[in-house]
Amino acid sequence: MKILFIRLRLIGDVIFTTPSIRAVKRCLPDAHLTYVVEREAAPILSRNPHLSDLIVVDRPHGLRRLTYDCALAKNLRASHFDAVIDFHGGPRSSWLTWCTRAPLRIGYSVPFRNWAYTHHVPRSRQLEARHSVVNQWDLLAALDERLGGTPDPQRDSVEMTEDLEVTGAIKHRLAQAGVGPTNQLIVIHVSAGNAFRQWPVEYFVQTIVTLAKSDPQRRFVITSGPSDRGAKNQIVAAMSTQVRQLVMLDEELDLVELRSLIDLAALFIGGDTGPLHLAATTSVPIVGIYGPTLAARSAPWRDPTYSVETADIGALLCRPCNQRHCEPGDFRCLTSLAPSIVVAAADRALEQCRPTSS
């Protein structure tokens, strides 16, 4: 049986599909599994052991998009897939799903896109407290009834296969930067994906300063996406006058390198964005910072024996929101989230992983 998965982007959303890939392969071990993904998120799947093929696509603009997608659709149809699961549900992915002409085409029941599918799976458009992994798992039952039910995060955790060569290179870079075996490495990702999830820069600084002063053996690597280098530079500049435990790597990290770096750390701290879920593919303790989103919907999905702490402000009338307009106007879900809350969460995460004395 030839099965095609489609989830074009984003990093966290693609990571959330990996439990479903594993489940399908477990249930249908002889199936030939192919995945279509855009280039930015492709490294997540490039070493996935359950996939037979990975089709990496670009996203050109204007007329180039039309000719590019027509050629892509022609190639997909020529592959004669038996089934397609559209995890994405967007205009491009639904059109590509339809173009395969597969006998079984599964997607969410979305207005103006139902024509693309032979099987429609209901999905609430409300911001309900239901995890994205569970939402995507709903699509599997239409493929095979044995895949129904609820995923178990212990058995069906997210995954991204480690690249041992890259990990070795990151270890070398850390050693060159002075990080030794007695140092406790903490990775702090300061990007947020959009302004509605951006924890204030000064709060990151206060958090790092507090954690640094409580243990002189700690070392800190600050990471960010390309669009948030300004925030990263502000934090680095502020830290340089207050603590001397910042580790500066000589080059920017790609997605595979970032995963290896996190895997070598004692703790990861970051907002609800792609690298938070990249961290979930490791066993490293995690502190997730949540503003307009809910942990119940997008918490790291992995074996619960690995430490995950949530830092948020709690219940607000405007939370969760659609991240298009701040109703109160003051981003209180983030500005009211004091650094002390994140520091306390970090201390709990590190304490849970500390070996007990005999």
How would you describe this structure to a colleague?
With 358 residues, the protein is an alpha/beta fold. It folds into two domains: 2-147, Rossmann fold (3-Layer(aba) Sandwich), CATH 3.40.50.2000; 164-352, 3-Layer(aba) Sandwich (Rossmann fold). Helices cover 35% and strands 15% of the residues. It is built from twelve helices and eleven strands. It has helices at residues 11-27, 63-78, 91-99, 132-137, 164-176, 201-214, 229-240, 255-263, 274-279, 295-298, 332-335, 339-352, and strands at 2-6, 32-38, 53-57, 83-86, 104-108, 119-121, 184-189, 218-223, 267-271, 286-289, 308-311. Strands 3-2-1-4-5-6 form a six-stranded parallel sheet, sandwiched between helices. Helix 5 (164-176) packs across helix 8 (255-263) and helix 6 crosses helix 7 (229-240). It is globular, with a radius of gyration of 21 Å. The mean pLDDT is 93.
